[in-house]
Amino acid sequence: MSAAASFSEALARVRGVEGWMTDAQARALWDAAEGLRPPGQIVEIGSFRGRSTIVLASARPDGVQMVAIDPHGGNDRGPQEYAPNAEVGDSDYSVFWENLHRTGVEDRVRHVREPSEAALGAVQGAIDLLYVDGAHRYVPARADIERYGERVPVGGAMLIHDSFNAIGVMLAQLRLLVFSRRWRYDGRRGSLAIYRREALGPVAALISTSRQLASVPWFVRNLLVKVAVVTKLTPLARLLGHTREHGPWPY
Questions:
Q1: Cα→Cα distances 66→43, 53, 127, 212, Å
Q2: Would you tell me how many other CB atoms lie within 10 Å of the CB of residue 101?
Q3: How many CA atoms, within 13 angstroms, populate the side-chain half-sphere of residue 101?
Q4: Contacts of 202 (CB under 8 A, 6+ apart)
Q5: What is the CA radius of gyration of the chain?
Q6: How distant, in Å, are the alpha carbons of 1, 65, 132, 150, 162 from that of 129?
Q7: What's the pLDDT tens digit per position in 44-81?
Q8: HEC assignment per residue over 6-45
Q9: What is the per-residue pLDDT for 64?
Q10: What is the rounded CA–CA span in Å between residue 204 and residue 218?
Q11: Which of 60, 114, 182, 239 is the one with CA 20 to 30 A from 13?
């Protein structure tokens, strides 16, 4: 099977691939990757079973390289899954490649099975599109945004999953991005935040900061939904607009 030739085809192919990516988020990834020109490079941090990897790899033009980084250690693979589990990680790794093969993109991705902090040296040159969906704790999330973000040139893009959602990611955003004059906030698709690397003047920086702070109430809402889910307070989750069709967790 060849790689999907259109977004709708790619979306159909990832329907059965486990992961936390909405259709709107997949569209944002597709558009960002499709708009690149060779020579260029996409780097994905956090692949899990390949849902986002397949979309990005299908969309990238020929001549644009893609590197997917994931240690597949069985940890940081979903909500409240922090402890390493080699057996689970090996299973994820096997399914990841099965999914890439089934959707025709296995030859369009170079995979690095290492933690992101150890994989930085495996990525050469500039990163024109960076997708961050690795560990959501503050320290690793901050390190991913900071270290890999430094490699994104002016005009490049960085998309971060679980923005305004996971506490660690939110804290990293506050520290590095909300008040930054090097990154322009370009909106979000649910919990997928989109940033463009630009040198911002005072007015543009203020607008970017204001737009991000406007999503803080949504972040608070998500925290309350998570509390309701964990404590099984279903009526509260429904009151906050979270229903079963959204999945077990807000994203």
A1: 6, 9, 10, 29
A2: 13
A3: 6
A4: none
A5: 18
A6: 26, 10, 10, 12, 17
A7: 999 999 999 999 999 999 999 999 999 998 776 666 66
A8: CHHHHHHHCCCCCCCCCHHHHHHHHHHHHCCCCCEEEEEE
A9: 97
A10: 23
A11: 114
